[in-house]
Amino acid sequence: MRSYAFAVISHIAGIVLSAGLLFYCVNEEIVFCPTFCGAAILYFSIHLYVIQMRQVKSWRHVVDCLRQQDLIQMVRSPYKDKVMRELADDLSEALRSLRGRLLDEEVRRQYFEGLLDKVDTAVLVVDTEGYVEWRNRAAGALPDTRYRLPGEFLEAIKAGKSVVRYGKPSVPRDWAIDATRIDLRGCERWLVSLKNIHSTLERNEVEAWQKLIRVLTHEIMNSITPVISLSETLSKRCKACPDDDRNRSYIQHGVNVIHRRSKGLLDFVENYRRLTRIAAPVKSRILVKDFFSDLRRLRPEPYIRFRLPDEPLVWLADRAQMEQVFLNLLKNACEACSERVSPEIIVAAGQEDGELVFTVSDNGIGILPEVIDRVFVPFFTTKSSGSGIGLSICKQIVASHGGNISVESENGKGSCFMLRF
Description:
The chain is an alpha+beta fold. It folds into four domains: 100 residues, no CATH class; 77 residues, Beta-Lactamase; 59 residues; 137 residues, Histidine kinase-like ATPase, C-terminal domain (Heat Shock Protein 90, 2-Layer Sandwich). Helices cover 53% and strands 19% of the residues. The chain has ten helices and twelve strands. The protein has a five-stranded antiparallel beta sheet with strand order 2-1-5-4-3. A five-stranded mixed beta sheet has the order 7-9-10-12-11. The longest helix is centred in the middle third of the chain and has 43 residues.
């Protein structure tokens, strides 16, 4: 094969020389030479066209390889000059590199699809109308989601709900739903994940009811059992000796006991009503520094210390309800430290991972490991005079503010209550 540059230059030179010779022959009126020169020009022109078409054919081969994703083919130059060989080699290398990237993308796609097929959470990609474009294996087991997401799920996505009830009227199910908006080449799509949490909610609900029933049964039985026993004893004494002065005195004493126990049961029921009637928070902007200053005035004990970071912290909360929470926690901390020679209670605030974090820690007696999981259960208490609703109310107030409260404790070394908002 000849050099591409030499072939093009030689044909152009032939056309130029033939045209010059043709002009000279016509000017000198030389017979037959113009015909020969015209034929030479035609020959060089046609051959130059063939050369260009051969080059175009080579580029078309590259385009066809890209269009058909046949990236295994090698690009070969029809000419042997250095420039064309280097260009062909560069194109071949580019095709190999593109083939490698496409293979990597395909392997990555299959990996993530396989990974999503293994999870038990249904994952779907839907358009704004709810039509399903892709779904994993878990989503294939969901009813009515083969072609389009049910209307209940679409309404929950638009309303920003995290839990939706969907299923047959006789057997409804609770689903945790999370949707993320994505933009694919200017088209809006939703990446939706669905998780059946009905059994989990039912189990938690049953456990909550069991805990509450155990507490209610314990408190009611503690009040009713002695009242029944005492009333039976008083009834027998009234029947045996109704006019005896000693019996009258005994009966009067028994009635006082019944009254006291009935009042205690009434107080218990009233505490339960307080627990179930916490008002919705009225939030306002609170400077944590000012909030701590008010707490310091309400609890002026010298062993209670407040710590704040250098930067000002602003909190959106119901001030009265949060004062109730912190005063309750400080009261419990003071009682836990009552037997310490050098009591120490630290209330701190700070920011962590975009959250506002408060801690109330003490060096008191701590909480026993076997009861630490029940400190927020309504009416559960380890104090002889406690009602068992303080920490339960704290938990409800914190939850109504969108936060959570937790406790860490080591028996004999103190406790630390942590509030995150």
